[in-house]
Design goal:
There is one protein chain. The protein is an all-alpha fold and about 150 residues long. It has one domain. α1 packs across α4, α1 runs parallel beside α7 and α4 packs across α7. The chain starts with a helix and ends with a helix.
Length: about 150
């Protein structure tokens, strides 16, 4: 479930952000053209000025998505089969582990964690809520509730 859900969460976030731009009459042709290429999550975060922990969480989530979509079928070079650039996620206790010292799942198996999915849904819900609040004078789409519901699974 998680291997499909995380890429879908980020796709839903991207769709929400683009829909928000259109719905709230904030359309920017330059931005829309930029969102057609790689690095669209960073461009959305920049556009809505999402910073701090939420920005870092979104970047980490994007990297996890990239690990899922573009897996490299070789060892990471670390003792626990987890890439160093995502070490923060491991420290948060969000991954599936064997529970045995010296024995670790491959990276993709570690990602198959309900804890990771709940965290990811919460991160996306927070980003959607942030975007919803950027245009208080306009009717917010209020889709954050949909993402928040996912965190209760």
């Amino acid at each position: 479930m998680v291997l499909a859900a995380i890429p879908m969460l980020l796709s839903a976030f991207r769709s929400f952000a683009i829909e928000n731009i259109h719905t709230n009459l904030l359309e920017d042709d330059l931005l829309m053209n930029e969102l057609k290429g790689a690095g669209e999550i960073q461009k959305i975060l920049d556009h809505y000025q999402i910073t701090g922990q939420l920005r870092q969480d979104m970047f980490d989530l994007q990297e996890i998505r990239n690990e899922i979509i573009h897996p490299i079928p070789k060892a990471t070079g670390t003792k626990d089969n987890w890439p160093d650039y995502l070490r923060r996620i491991k420290r948060m206790g969000l991954l599936d582990e064997t529970g045995r010292a010296g024995s670790h799942f491959d990276t993709l198996y570690q990602v198959c964690s309900l804890r990771l999915f709940r965290w990811a849904a919460g991160v996306v819900a927070s980003a959607v809520q942030f975007i919803d609040k950027t245009s208080p004078e306009l009717q917010p789409l209020s889709l954050a509730k949909n993402f928040t519901i996912l965190t209760s699974i």
